Amino acid sequence: MRIGLIRMRYTPYGGAEVFMARFVDELLRLGHTVDVFAADWQEKKGVAVHRVKTWGPSFLRPLVFAANAAKAVERVRPDVVISLERTACQDIYRAGDGVHKEWLLQRKKAAQGLTAGLKGVLTGLNPLRGFNPLHAVLLNLEKRLFSDKRLKKVVANSNRVKQEIIRHYGLPEKKICVIYNGINADEFAGRVAAADRAGVRKELSVSEDECLLLFIGSGFERKGLVYLIRALKPLMEAGKKPRLLVVGKGRAAGYLKEAEALGVADRVIFKGAVKDAARFYAAADIFVLPSIYEPFSNACLEAMAAGLPVVTSRINGASEIITEPVNGAVIEEPADHLEIAKKIAFFLDGQKRKLSGEAARRTAFEYTIEKNVSEFLRLIV
User: Could you tell me the strand order of the sheet in which 33-38 lies?
Assistant: First the structure.
């Protein structure tokens, strides 16, 4: 079968892009022909990459891309088209980025809880910085997408996203299928080795008897990093002294300033964006992601495969596969740093952490990329 996939561009740090790369690999393994429609994508043997032009100011590029992607798809005519973007030329839309209208609501709610000083630094959550026309473009594309007559199915990567689509756009429930993310679990489970753990901890100057919390994600505002940093203070006051490793693309200055104001700056390590996250899972003890909006975090699934208990927010679709406290914990309100601290504290007990990590790994092995692609193909045929 000739399958077309649409995504504007590739980045090794984006969850949707990393998912699509795994998705492509599995399609090729099964013998399918793959066409990728993108403005920028990595070349791969066996994949025909069709360059889709986009231009203009940043807020117009999604609109230009959507128009040109439709023309490219019409020229190539794959048997089926799966889009990971807000386009109007697909048979199946994978809503891996969630619902933009819902994200704006959650962002506004989160901004109300920030101090005036912090809003000035964390501009992504500052409602006072002026209207960004990109939001109007994305909302327009989103509305058009869900009313497109060609659209046969929508794949949500969590039940939460499914309900958001129904609530905001009135799409019939029967048209939406929930397929959780899939990973190559062996890739992460196999990397949890003593050598990796010791090497990374030495590199970070973290001793073996220190509990290392891990945060991985690009877009620190949306991922709730400020609330995790705030959670360190009550843990310290309770005599707990975990370290926090932050991995991902984002501006660290405002968060370091917040950590300094709280007196926990010496407990936080910023590593920046990396291409090989597996080695950091190996070095960590607990994975924490208190996102203010998250359709379904790949990083949570990867952390579970690496044997880490996961502490994340209810608004993260990955929380739907967490059974508390068996394989992790769920935060009801990501802005509540005391709740985050309490959830983390449970896993500071080594034995509880070990048992939960083992359960987390078993859970992750239920959500493979092979299973994900199989469920997609059942929608097509």
Answer: 47-51, 33-38, 2-6, 80-83, 92-94, 153-156, 176-178
Asked whether 319 and 330 are in contact (CB, 8 A), the reply is: yes
Residues 225 and 168 grouped into a single domain: no
The answer as to whether 91 is a domain residue is: yes
Residue 92 forms beta bridges with which residues?
Answer: 82, 153
The string of pLDDT tens digits covering residues 9-45 is 877 667 778 889 899 999 999 999 999 999 998 888 9
Give the number of other Cβ atoms within 10 Å of residue 45's Cβ.
5
- CA atoms of 218 and 277, how far apart (whole Å): 12
Domain extent, residue 219, equals 185-364
Task: Using the 3D structure, point to which of 178, 196, 226 is the last residue of a domain.
Answer: 178
Helix (H) or strand (E) segment spanning residue 54: none
Q: Residue 79 and residue 198: Cα distance in Å, rounded?
A: 49
Q: Give the CA angle between residues 12, 320, 146 to the nearest 5°.
A: 70
This prediction has a pTM of: 0.92
Distance (Å, whole) CA 59 – CA 69: 17
- Give the pLDDT band of residue 122 (cuts 50, 70, 90): low
Written as six digits, the tokens of 215 are 């945060």
The CATH number of the domain holding residue 96 is: 3.40.50.2000
Judge if 136 and 34 occupy the same domain: yes
Same domain, 16 and 98: yes
CA gap 234, 19 in Å, rounded: 36
Determine the distance from the C-alpha atom of residue 219 to the mean position of all C-alpha atoms in its chain, rounded to a whole number: 10
The C-alpha R_g of the chain, in whole angstroms, comes to 21
Tens of pLDDT, residues 148-190: 989 999 999 999 999 999 999 999 999 999 999 998 877 777 6
Q: For residues 126 and 62, what is the distance between their CA atoms, to the nearest angstrom?
A: 23
